[in-house]
Design brief:
This protein has one domain: Ribonuclease Z/Hydroxyacylglutathione hydrolase-like (Metallo-beta-lactamase, Chain A, 4-Layer Sandwich), CATH 3.60.15. The protein is built from 8 helices and 13 strands. The strands form 2 sheets. Strands 6-5-4-3-2-1-13-12 form an 8-stranded mixed sheet. Strands 7-8-9-10-11 form a 5-stranded mixed sheet. The protein is globular, with a radius of gyration of 16 Å. The protein starts with a strand and ends with a strand.
Length: 248
């Protein structure tokens, strides 16, 4: 089976290190916002969807913003070519673009969907990252699937609940010959720094703990890939300013 994995960068932002690491200070750190594409000749799977509203990009000082549906053209795909969408969690910068992929099977953990519902029903008392409008769009998805602690989405991809960043946050294992070749940490680790002894700050762990031990258990000897590190372009193969090939 020919399998390719890409990181697609839909924006760049700089935030204080204290927003990114538990022991961070005031110095700015650059984050590259990614979604991930897993592709074989017969099936393409998108991990997260970015968002669509340019006002959110301005509010959160995200520059070089690009909707994911348009970004797919850089790897020769269109939205209708996506068979499955995996939502690692329900924050706006991960689910806000799902409107462009309602034809696909959409996967989210049961715990995360319930967390979204509780947060938005609290009318502002819940985490800021959850929005009514995103929950409403998910409700329109005709092929929305929820699951418990783990699920095989295809022979080459398995998802597992690791919590951490949010109560229902997922990690995505990319498999070849049944073994993990990459594990996508999503927002459970934004930078390699988070994987190297500097965990996310408490404000970024509504799941209640650092997910790194669980991520390491899932990965074994396979590389862990953080969700927002600009170093992906130097550690893997940079194909264009927005596209990095992670595998093979």
């Amino acid at each position: 089976m020919s399998l390719e994995v890409f990181a697609l960068r839909f924006g760049v932002a700089e935030y204080p290190a204290s927003w990114v690491c538990e022991d961070g200070g005031d110095e700015p750190l650059t984050l590259a916002l990614h979604v991930f594409l897993l592709r074989t000749p017969s099936r393409s799977i998108l991990v997260d969807t970015g968002f669509l509203d340019p006002a959110l990009a301005r509010r959160w000082r995200i520059r070089d913003f690009f909707p994911v549906a348009r970004l797919l053209t850089e790897v020769g795909l269109a939205p209708e070519n996506i068979a499955d969408v995996i939502l690692t969690h329900g924050h706006w910068d991960h689910v806000g673009g799902v409107r462009d992929f309602l034809h696909a099977r959409v996967w989210i953990s049961r715990d995360e969907l319930e967390t979204m519902k509780r947060a938005v029903q609290a009318r502002g008392a819940g985490p800021e990252g959850y929005r009514w409008e995103d929950l409403q769009v998910l409700g329109l998805a005709p092929r929305l699937h929820t699951f418990g602690r783990r699920r095989s989405i295809a022979p080459f991809v398995r998802v597992a609940l690791v919590s951490g960043h949010t109560p229902g946050c997922l990690a995505v294992s990319v498999l070849r010959e049944g073994l993990p070749r990459l594990v996508l940490a999503g927002d459970n680790a934004w930078l390699y720094r988070n994987l190297e002894g500097h965990p996310l700050p408490l404000m970024a762990r509504s799941g209640g703990h650092d997910a790194l031990p669980r991520l390491r258990e899932l990965a074994g000897d396979a590389p862990l890939v953080p969700g927002r590190d600009p170093q992906l372009g130097s550690r893997f193969t940079q194909l264009s300013p927005r596209v990095v090939r992670l595998f093979p």
